[in-house]
Recover the amino acids of this structure.
């Protein structure tokens, strides 16, 4: 995994009063930088240039 940028994924589940119920977080690395596109940029909030 050397040379690949880490991407952090996080999810928070909340009840109807916006109280945290569960969380999930995982750091991953993109296997092929060519798969990173504008739609991925929107989800990850990371520019394609990174």
């Amino acid at each position: 995994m050397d040379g690949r940028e880490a991407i952090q994924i996080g999810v928070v589940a909340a009840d109807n009063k916006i109280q945290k119920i569960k969380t999930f977080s995982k750091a991953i690395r993109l296997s092929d930088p060519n798969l990173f596109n504008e739609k991925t940029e929107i989800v990850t909030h990371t520019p394609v240039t990174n």
Q: What stands out?
A: The mean pLDDT is 78. The first strand starts at residue 6 and ends at 14. The first helix runs from residue 38 to 44. The helical segments are 38-44.
